[in-house]
Design brief:
The complex is a heterotrimer of chains A (354), B (366) and C (317).
Chain A: E1 4-13, E2 16-26, E3 31-35, H1 42-50, E4 57-62, E5 65-66, E6 77-80, H2 92-101, H3 107-120, H4 136-148, E7 154-158, H5 166-183, E8 186-191, H6 194-200, E9 203-208, E10 211-216, H7 218-223, H8 228-233, E11 240-247, E12 250-253, E13 256-261, E14 265-271, E15 276-279, E16 283-292, E17 296-303, E18 306-313, E19 324-329, E20 335-338, E21 349-350
Parallel strand pairs in A: 3-8, 3-9, 6-7, 7-8
Antiparallel strand pairs in A: 1-2, 1-4, 4-5, 9-10, 11-12, 11-14, 12-13, 13-21, 14-20, 15-19, 16-17, 16-19, 17-18
Helix pairs in contact in A: 2-3, 2-4, 3-4
Chain B: H1 2-13, H2 20-62, H3 71-93, H4 97-118, H5 136-143, H6 156-187, H7 193-205, H8 212-221, H9 228-252, H10 256-264, H11 269-280, H12 282-298, H13 301-306, H14 315-326, H15 331-351, H16 356-360
Helix pairs in contact in B: 2-15, 3-4, 6-9, 6-12, 6-14, 7-9, 9-12, 10-11, 12-15, 14-15
Chain C: H1 4-52, H2 68-76, H3 79-112, H4 115-130, H5 133-143, H6 151-159, H7 168-171, H8 173-198, H9 202-210, H10 215-226, H11 228-244, H12 247-252, H13 264-274, H14 278-298, H15 305-308
Classes of the chains: A alpha+beta (354), B mainly alpha (366), C mainly alpha (317).
């Protein structure tokens, strides 16, 4: 197992600088997720860990040793690629066996380990098939077995669930997490799906345009997003963000005025839909649209400061379209950002307008 | 438990944290060796090809008094090889785009200067005498004091016109006939369609060279031997199956929807073909046209066999006889004719190179 | 208001019209192609068969029908076995060394380096294919010229200290025809293999590297398995084209010295056009024609018949 460190790592492709300056430590045995929209440099970072890309500058360390130029095959990493990258002309057994071929593992031991790995991800009965005869979920498991069979010191997962259908994604999530618990191998997951990241990882590194926006536990990112970007990226349906001016302890957002504590100047107020409720107090609006989501109902409410999303528990709508309502919230759930720098103002909150 | 089996086996394998540095050193060495070996290999196998072509060009522009001068070749190679290597090094070593541009400009300037100094004085256009002097053979011979036995060459522009006529007519007919047939085979349902497609598949791979003997007799009996028209017909027929096959591929790729919408807009199928489908396969037509033209321009064996009179000579025959006759007398003129004959081919190939792949599958040359 | 009778006439006229249109369409679209194909493929084959049973010779007049040509092929022509043996050496030598192996090496090498450099080297290797045959062979004749001016002799004498110039055209003619054809043949393999290598998903190479494969293991386990189909395609097609083509040999050695480089196809040509034995040439050519058809049929395996024969989706004409 290994401790990973990025030290001022830069990556350029030709004249394009994808990663300007990356600093990050991943502890031994940790499960971290690199989360961000496409093109944010998360896959590039993963490929540098795998040795497929060579950093253009800075240092990449495994257990304190610079490995910038060490060849992929010497790094002993296991990778599950987005498209699984199974060798199409080999059986499942040969696919899983492939990494052991280059380790000069004795044939008997190798076969035993293939069986063990196949058991682990429950593909033992598929060993003689070709990848083209497998379903997406099965291919995924085989790719996992191939990555694990060589006992990697580092397991890299590149969008491993993005090609699966919704229900399979749910079960693979649980399985990968429990595999990590069993094996304890340092694992890096790359994903653009915040749910995947929050459900599986111990720690999330949220990236944007090649820079780290925030590092923290899923709770940190959800409850204390350090920037407008993270706040907007984490949470579904997305957070309501409204910009206004604070003066004399009141923020004015279009027509609405909120009492504010601990901040002044140009502010952006963030209110998560699930923290809002329709009730007797708060700001006024008219329900424009109702979207039942199964267990919850999403109301889109037209208010003085624009459309606001409100998420309410329950499967049947308690309100109807066109109804005039009031929207309230608890002060401690509100987030306040500096509009200019897009940063969270710690400890600042707004209250319901009275 | 499977998981435990995996875990216990692993611990021993990873006490190698210490050799990370050694691995990095090895990786750097391997990377470098690989690049050097690859480039060295490719340069080594490419030189035997570049050298003769380069020789042809240098002789054409520098030879005097008919001697195959290699001094100019070696001198210009001495300029060009270092320049090429310098280019590569600049691009490989440059840290930024700006640096590489400056480097390339500097190398180019030095290269041009060295070339002008070492090779420039030797360059001249005298070997292209055949372009303006129809009786160049006598001129060339009189230079070395030999007058007798000069072959009467036709004017080079005459051969040039014959080649253009053959290649052009062939191209026009092949493109027209092949587009019509390919469209019909691709888009119309009719009895016998599948057997026709199967025979097309056989024909497009069939080696036409095997028919040269009966074809010769046939042309002789119908009186088309030693006529350009006969040769054009034969070449058209031979190019046709291949052209139809390729064109069918292009027509197959046109979405049905646009044709259906043309029909619902009131067009007949013939009108839909002309106004909607044909514009979609413009690239295919261009590719077929260029390659058919090249084949006509380069054609040697059929024109050599079917055309006899020297007023019917094409560029390939002109080149052949110039080489056969002037050979050993004036390398300069032969090279100049060669450059004159080669350049149109190269230009056309460059223009159509992105279709080369499609044309290679099924093409029977080489 | 239209009566039923009216509607019937309209329908019948429509039907008749559609049949007529069907016919004109067929004639307009397929007519020229069919005429040309029949005239220049079917008729020559028939002529070839017919002529092979005559004594047609230089006078181009048929005096009798005979099976004498086939007797010659199977019994009396002593030279034929030598010609066939040479043909085998030439076809398989060129194919094995250049068209497949060297084409493959070029494709692998040029795709392993930077794209711009790779295209440059591929461009160089395409030069022979892009040159007209007469010119390409002219360069060969100059390169192997037996005098001191020949390019190869110059290099050998100046750089390697050879004493007297070599005459490769007489001393190694078979090697020469193999190499000169191979330079052209290698580029076809190169193009097709390059395209095939390009279409291998890059993540397979990444996965192999992660799994511990080095350069050669990647070629063996990823590249070669993906090239199985293109390799057999090139093999079959190039066998056929090498078997029937003689253009470069005719230009380079004229089949000589004597008959040393006369492959089967060139032998047919020389018998017919040099010796004027058109009947005998036709008989010899018939075997090539048969081989041509057989190999072309073999080529079927390489085409997606389903796609080729896909039914048109518009039914009207």
């Amino acid at each position: 197992m290994a401790k990973i460190e990025f030290r001022n790592v830069v990556k350029r492709f030709g004249a394009v600088e994808v990663i300007p300056d990356l600093n990050l430590v991943i502890e031994d045995g940790e499960f971290v997720a690199l989360l961000g929209p496409s093109g944010c440099g998360k896959s590039t970072s993963l490929f540098m860990l795998a040795g497929i890309y060579v950093p253009s500058g800075g240092e990449l360390l495994f257990d304190g040793h610079v490995v910038n130029e060490v060849e992929t095959r010497d790094r002993n990493v296991g990778v599950v690629f987005q498209s699984y990258a199974l060798y199409p002309h080999m059986s499942v057994r040969d696919n899983i066996l492939f990494p052991l071929r280059f380790k000069k593992t004795p044939r008997d031991e190798a076969l035993a380990r293939v069986t063990a790995a196949a058991d682990l991800v429950r593909v033992a009965e598929l060993l003689d098939r070709r990848p083209s005869e497998l379903s997406g979920g099965q291919q995924q498991r085989v790719a996992l077995a191939r990555a694990l069979v060589k006992e990697p010191q580092l397991l890299l997962l590149d969008e491993p669930l993005s090609n699966l259908d919704a229900s399979l994604r749910l079960s693979m999530r649980t399985e990968i997490k429990s595999l990590h618990a069993q094996l304890g191998v340092t694992t890096v997951l790359v994903t653009h799906d915040q749910i995947e990241a929050t459900t599986m990882a111990d720690r999330i590194i949220c990236m944007r345009a090649g820079r780290i926006e925030q590092v923290g536990t899923p709770d940190d990112l959800y409850l204390r997003p350090s920037s407008l970007f993270v706040a907007g990226f984490i949470g579904s349906p997305p957070i309501n963000l409204v910009a206004g001016e604070a003066e004399d302890g009141m923020v004015t957002v279009n027509g609405a005025r909120f009492p504010v504590e601990g901040a002044s100047g140009s502010l952006t107020v963030g209110l998560r839909p699930e923290h809002l409720r329709i009730g007797d107090t708060g700001f006024a609006g008219r329900i424009a649209q109702i979207e039942p989501m199964g267990r919850e109902i999403l109301y889109v409410v037209e208010t003085g400061m624009g459309a606001v999303r409100v998420l309410e528990q329950g499967s049947s709508a308690g309100h109807s379209t066109g109804e005039q309502v009031k929207i309230g919230f608890l002060s401690e759930n509100s987030l306040v950002f500096e509009t200019e720098r897009q940063k969270l103002i710690a400890g600042a909150h707004v209250r319901e307008p009275v | 438990m499977a998981a435990q089996a995996i875990n216990t086996a692993s611990t021993a394998a990873f006490d190698r944290a210490a050799d990370w540095d050694a691995l990095a050193v090895r990786a750097r060495a391997v990377r470098r060796t690989k690049a050097v070996v690859l480039y060295a290999f490719l340069i080594a196998v490419s030189l035997p090809i570049i050298l003769p072509y380069f020789w042809l060009v240098t002789i054409a522009f520098s030879a005097r008094a008919g001697v195959a001068e290699t001094a100019v070749l070696w001198r210009s190679m001495a300029v060009i090889m270092p320049v090429v290597v310098a280019f590569w090094l600049t691009v490989a070593l440059a840290q930024s785009r700006r640096q590489s541009w400056i480097g390339i400009a500097a190398v180019a300037a030095i290269g041009v200067f060295a070339f002008a100094l070492l090779v420039g004085p030797d360059l001249h256009l005298g070997n292209f005498i055949f372009l303006w002097e129809p009786d160049f053979a006598s001129v060339v011979r009189s230079r070395i004091g030999e007058v007798k036995g000069a072959v009467q060459f036709p004017n080079v522009w005459h051969a040039f016109a014959n080649s253009i006529l053959i290649a052009g007519a062939q191209t026009a007919i092949v493109v027209t006939v092949a587009s019509l047939a390919a469209y019909y085979l691709s888009r119309f349902q009719f009895p016998g369609r599948s057997s026709m497609l199967r025979s097309l598949l056989v024909l497009h791979a069939f080696p036409v060279l095997t028919l040269i003997v009966p074809m010769f007799l046939m042309l002789y009996w119908i009186g088309l031997l030693d006529t350009l028209f006969g040769v054009i017909l034969v070449l058209v027929a031979f190019e046709l199956p291949f052209a139809i096959f390729i064109m069918k591929g292009f027509f197959d790729a046109v979405p049905w929807d646009i044709e259906m919408s043309a029909l619902t807009d009131g067009a007949s199928r013939r009108q839909a073909f002309v106004s909607v489908v044909l514009p979609q396969v413009r690239n295919g037509i261009l590719a077929i046209a260029v390659f058919t033209f090249i084949r006509g321009w380069e054609e040697y064996i059929f024109v050599f066999t079917f055309l006899i009179r020297n007023s019917n000579w094409t560029m390939s025959l002109y080149m052949y006889w110039v080489r056969d006759d002037v050979m050993g007398v004036d390398y300069g003129v032969v090279s100049a004719v060669g450059v004159f004959y080669l350049v149109p081919s190269l230009i056309l190939y460059m223009a159509a190179q992105r279709y080369l792949m499609q044309m290679s599958i099924g093409g029977v040359k080489g | 208001m239209t009566t039923i009778a009216d509607e019937l006439t309209i329908e019948r006229r429509g039907h008749a019209g559609s049949v007529a249109r069907r016919r004109t369409n067929f004639v307009i679209f397929l007519g020229p192609a069919i005429i040309l194909t029949v005239l220049f493929f079917v008729v020559p084959v028939v002529i070839d068969v017919a002529v092979s049973f005559t004594d047609l010779s230089r006078s181009l007049r048929i005096s009798e029908f005979t099976t004498e040509q086939y007797e010659k092929v199977f019994r009396t022509d002593r030279r034929l076995s030598q010609v066939i043996g040479l043909t085998f050496i030439y076809v398989f030598g060129t194919l094995a060394i250049f068209n497949v192996t060297f084409g493959l090496i070029l494709a692998v090498a040029t795709t392993a380096i930077r794209n711009a450099s790779g295209s440059f080297f591929r461009g160089v290797w395409l030069l022979p294919r892009m040159s007209p045959s007469v010119l390409y062979i002219l360069l060969w004749l100059w390169a192997v010229s037996p005098t001191e001016a020949g390019l190869i002799n110059q290099v050998l004498m100046q750089a390697f200290g050879l004493d007297a110039p070599l005459d490769l055209l007489t001393s190694a003619p078979i090697a020469l025809i193999i190499i000169s054809n191979g330079f052209i043949g290698a580029s076809m393999g190169m193009i097709i293999f390059t395209a095939a290598i390009r279409s291998i998903p890059e993540h397979l190479y990444h996965a192999a590297a992660v799994d511990g494969a080095g350069t050669f293991a990647k070629i063996r386990f990823i590249t070669l398995p993906a090239l199985r189909w293109p390799i057999s395609f090139v093999t079959i097609y190039q066998t056929l084209s090498l078997l029937v083509s003689f253009e470069y040999i005719l230009l380079l050695t004229k089949g000589g010295p004597f008959y040393d480089t006369t492959v089967y196809a060139l032998y047919v040509y020389r018998r017919a056009f040099e010796s004027g034995q058109y009947g005998y040439g036709a008989a010899l050519a018939l075997f090539l024609i048969v081989i041509g058809v057989v190999v072309a049929l073999l080529g079927w395996r390489f085409f997606d018949m389903e796609r080729l024969l896909q039914r048109p989706r518009i039914e009207v004409h």
